[in-house]
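We were asked to recover a plausible sequence for a given structure. The inputs and outputs are reproduced exactly as logged, with field labels preserved.

PROBLEM: sequence recovery
POSITIONS: 385
GIVEN STRUCTURE:
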């Protein structure tokens, strides 16, 4: 299949063969793998919110996984930045009306498919459902599909809903205010964005701490989503990302590594002192301000560093990488169902939690991409996955 102009793509995981940017496809595969493993890690550490909570892994793996979970502070921003990068070109090529219709189909239909077909099963096996005695059909209709004013249970595909909203808002804004031409990217721009992320995140988390949800959305992390998408679209419009200026890339690498080290030191010291880690979630505490400041630094540095790194080092694909990138979007959509099945299966055996975590992680990645690959081959379904 001949490659298609990347301007046609604004999907969170553009399909293989539809982008000239092999590095972007490779990065998105890594990100999807990270999401899958992160959800398994939540189940076996209890740090975060997911369908199941299993017997936690023991030290030292527990601390390693908790520290590795700091990737959640910037991972979604990378997703949104990559999606934002391809949005201006798609809008310019298609025009506002066609762009909106395309976004509704490519993002809305997979979201609808998850809500209708996957969410009922996932929600039915959720331990939080305990006590419901009126059956699967009633639960699906009254809780999963219709729980106004809460939206239907959309699981990880909330990302598609938010990206759809961002894309449509961007199209409206650009219909009113034209994009500016290329301008040089300065480090002061990134510092300003980092400070804004820190301040807004800290304020939002006074009312909605990390871990709490409003309308099934982790609103406490929303400032990083907005920042990631905005960096992507503005970076594409102004030529900041093709490529990332070497001096900025070097700065982003140093800041990103420093922020990761700061996260490990901050959380590690608090845990060693027996402090309440919930203080980092919000409520206006100094700990939440410190974490928000680190998060701001990570969001403006890690996405740029990863874009630069993958563009320089991983801008090629073999057969396996092409197949994985083709299946990545579908794997993202179905992975929760795959993981739920694997976790339930793990209840039938008595293994150390460390072994269960490792096996479910590996099988979850392999199973999600395998099913994703099969779905992309279906005549109608594959068109939107």
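RECOVERED SEQUENCE:
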């Amino acid at each position: 299949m001949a490659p298609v102009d990347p301007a046609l793509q604004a999907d969170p995981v553009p399909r293989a063969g539809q982008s000239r940017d092999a590095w972007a496809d490779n990065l998105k595969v890594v990100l999807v793998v990270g999401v899958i493993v992160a959800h398994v890690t939540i189940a076996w550490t209890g740090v975060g919110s997911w369908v199941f909570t299993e017997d936690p892994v023991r030290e030292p793996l527990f601390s390693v996984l908790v520290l590795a979970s700091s990737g959640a502070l910037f991972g979604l921003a990378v997703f949104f930045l990559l999606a934002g990068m391809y949005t201006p070109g798609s809008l310019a090529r298609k025009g506002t009306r066609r762009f909106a219709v395309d976004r509704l189909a490519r993002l809305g239909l997979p979201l609808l498919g998850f809500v209708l077909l996957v969410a009922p099963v996932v929600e039915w096996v959720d331990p939080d459902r305990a006590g419901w005695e009126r059956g699967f059909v009633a639960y699906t209709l009254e809780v999963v599909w219709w729980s106004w004013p809460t939206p239907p249970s959309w699981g990880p595909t909330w990302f598609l809903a938010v990206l759809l909203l961002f894309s449509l808002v961007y199209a409206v804004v650009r219909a009113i205010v034209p994009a500016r031409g290329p301008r040089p990217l300065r480090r002061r721009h990134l510092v300003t964005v980092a400070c804004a992320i820190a301040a807004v995140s800290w304020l939002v988390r006074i009312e909605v701490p990390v871990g709490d949800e409003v309308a099934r959305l982790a609103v406490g992390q929303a400032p990083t989503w907005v920042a990631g998408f905005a960096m992507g679209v503005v970076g594409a419009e102004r030529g900041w990302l093709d490529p990332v200026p070497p001096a900025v890339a070097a700065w982003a690498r140093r800041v990103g590594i420093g922020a990761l080290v700061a996260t490990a030191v901050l959380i590690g010291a608090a845990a060693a002192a027996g402090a309440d880690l919930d203080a980092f979630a919000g409520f206006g505490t100094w700990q939440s301000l410190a974490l928000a400041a680190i998060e701001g630094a990570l969001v403006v540095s890690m996405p740029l560093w990863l874009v630069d790194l993958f563009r320089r080092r991983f801008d090629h694909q073999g057969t396996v990488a092409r197949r994985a990138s083709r299946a990545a979007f579908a794997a993202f959509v179905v992975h929760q169902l795959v993981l739920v099945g694997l976790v339930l299966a793990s209840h039938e055996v008595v293994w150390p939690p460390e072994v269960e975590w490792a096996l479910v992680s590996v099988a979850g990645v392999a199973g999600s991409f395998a099913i994703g690959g099969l779905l992309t081959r279906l005549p109608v379904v594959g068109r939107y996955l």
